[in-house]
Inverse folding.
């Protein structure tokens, strides 16, 4: 999902970004023809956009950068884009607040923990699952584990990336059986450290998303709790920096960026083989593993709806009640839709 990939991300100046950035860059589209009629903006209509370079963050390799290269979705954009990849959501939200990135996609919890820290950002759109019966993340246990139910987690150690969507899954799973974080030991580990702890038996369970969850299960782990409603959301959220949103011209250009991203993913859903290849390349996993988890990545981009705000508010209140944040979050106050009401990328014409 990017316009003509015009460069590799350089030093962005933020320690938070630099320490969590996994990969970034750009490339020229190759084999696939560019998507037609993307977003409808032109250099002639917006000559001032030529001075902009937008940095787009993704949370763990959603295929967007590789899809942009394949589809050429940003080839005729009147601005430049570049991509930054993060290991998980909280540092991405912090980077959006500091202006190191302009737009990025995260799970349901990072906007809450970011708002509790009074970071300057807004939730601007939803990447809504087309397959809400497919878990994006799970709580898993090692092969041979005697844990059979959620209640069995009492007194156990659960690895979880702090402030991530997987943190929300763990919290809600515990709450569903009358437990709180005080009844377990939450080992706050980033995904790489969590994998090491899980594989070496240093934790009893791991709350983590795909592809890590799917790969662990393939290697013998077992799903204890599926990340499905009502204890988990299957959609993710786009966040943008307050600084960019407050600039009228940049705001309009960011809307164009978001629409191009939405068209790219709409194309990917209709071309699953190419999408699996994009995920494989970005995540560094075998194509078969990427294809197996593809359903969880099938999304459509829409505006934030009232139901989303209510779900996020309920989650924010649960985090406050459990002592995982120290400040009440008003989700409506951090919501600022960039897309018009009724916008749904699944209805876009995406013939290439």
């Amino acid at each position: 999902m990017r316009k003509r990939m015009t460069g590799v991300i350089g030093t962005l100046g933020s320690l938070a970004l630099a320490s969590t950035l996994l990969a970034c860059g750009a490339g020229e589209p190759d084999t696939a023809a560019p998507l037609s009629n993307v977003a409808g903006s032109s250099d002639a209509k917006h000559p001032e956009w030529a001075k902009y370079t937008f940095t787009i963050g993704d949370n763990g390799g959603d295929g967007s950068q590789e899809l942009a290269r394949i589809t050429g979705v940003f080839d005729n954009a009147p601005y430049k884009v570049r991509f930054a990849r993060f290991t998980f959501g909280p540092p991405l939200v912090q980077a959006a607040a500091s202006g190191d990135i302009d737009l990025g996609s995260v799970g349901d919890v990072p906007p809450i923990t970011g708002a509790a820290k009074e970071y300057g950002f807004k939730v601007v759109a939803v990447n809504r699952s087309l397959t809400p019966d497919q878990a994006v993340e799970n709580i898993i246990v090692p092969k041979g584990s005697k844990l059979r139910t959620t209640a069995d987690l009492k007194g156990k150690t659960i690895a979880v990336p702090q402030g991530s969507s997987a943190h929300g899954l763990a919290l809600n799973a515990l709450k569903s059986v009358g437990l709180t974080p005080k009844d377990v030991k939450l080992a706050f580990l980033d995904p790489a450290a969590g994998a090491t702890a899980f594989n070496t038996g240093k934790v009893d369970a791991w709350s983590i998303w795909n592809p890590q969850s799917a790969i662990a299960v393939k290697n013998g782990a077992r799903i204890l709790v599926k990340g499905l409603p009502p204890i988990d959301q299957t959609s993710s959220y786009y966040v943008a920096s307050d600084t960019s949103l407050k600039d009228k011209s940049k705001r309009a250009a960011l809307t164009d960026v978001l629409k191009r991203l939405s068209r790219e993913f709409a194309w990917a859903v209709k071309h699953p083989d190419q999408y699996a290849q994009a995920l494989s390349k970005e995540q560094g996993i075998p194509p078969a593993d990427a294809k197996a988890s593809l359903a969880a990545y099938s999304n459509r981009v829409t505006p934030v709806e009232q139901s989303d705000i209510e779900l996020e508010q309920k989650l924010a209140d649960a985090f406050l009640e459990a002592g995982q944040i120290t400040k009440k979050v008003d989700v409506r106050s951090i919501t600022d839709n960039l897309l018009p009401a009724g916008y749904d990328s699944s209805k876009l014409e995406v013939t290439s």
